[in-house]
Design a protein that fits this description.
Helix content: 25-40%
Distance between the termini: 28 Å
CATH topology of one domain: Heat-Labile Enterotoxin, Chain A
Order of helices and strands: EHHEHEHEEHHHHEEE
Structural class: alpha+beta
Largest sheet: 3 strands, antiparallel
Number of strands: 8
Shape: globular
Number of helices: 8
Strand order of the largest sheet: 1-4-8
């Protein structure tokens, strides 16, 4: 049995529609899946043209998204939601993607020009990508090279950003839809 979660902040699309009755459907379910759309979905949160539905293995990640990524803060009278999704077994036709595996397949040789995921900053660059509120300053701090600082922050590719976010959020993507039969519970978050 595989258990996943999906947060729905107050005022968002899946907050006003009960996925227990309808399941989850991507905004663009007929769009061909691929690494560039996956990066846009994970990094830029461009969901209007996405064939993916995000979910996470972590209840706490889903709860965080429900609390902080809505149009208003949740309250007891207007709670946010965390949906619980269970695949037991995976229904026929449902396709799940691990962004880490999919994006790793799209990377080129370390000697190639972009896309690459290596950065040229200090070891704490990953902290900045994981927690921009507390460590975002490392993403703008000038990179040091032999001789003097470059005057610019580190190179952070969309590939690196997507890999880090997918790891941080324990993210898995469903292609096109998640059937109603898999959406088992909706927890209120205030």
């Amino acid at each position: 049995m595989a258990r996943y979660y999906r947060g729905a902040g107050v005022g968002t699309y899946w907050h006003s529609r009960d996925a227990r009755a309808s399941g989850f459907v991507a905004a663009a379910p007929g769009t061909t899946a691929g690494p560039l759309l996956m990066i846009d979905h994970v990094v830029n949160q461009i969901t209007l043209s996405s064939p993916y539905v995000s979910m996470t293995r972590s209840y706490e990640v889903a709860e965080h998204y429900a609390k902080y990524f809505g149009l208003a803060a949740p309250t007891a009278n207007a709670p946010a939601y965390v949906y619980e999704i269970i695949f037991d077994p995976l229904p026929s036709g449902v396709q799940l993607y691990d962004p880490i595996q999919e994006l790793a397949k799209s990377l080129t040789s370390p000697l190639a020009t972009p896309p690459f995921y290596q950065h040229n900053g200090a070891p704490d660059v990953l902290l900045g990508l994981v927690d921009r509120v507390r460590f975002g300053f490392v993403l703008t701090r000038p990179v040091r090279n032999p001789g003097s600082p470059t005057g610019v922050g580190p190179h952070i590719s969309d590939h690196l950003n997507a890999l880090v976010r997918a790891l941080r959020d324990a993210e898995v993507l469903a292609y096109a839809s998640i059937p109603q039969s898999c959406v088992r519970m909706r927890h209120s978050i205030s």
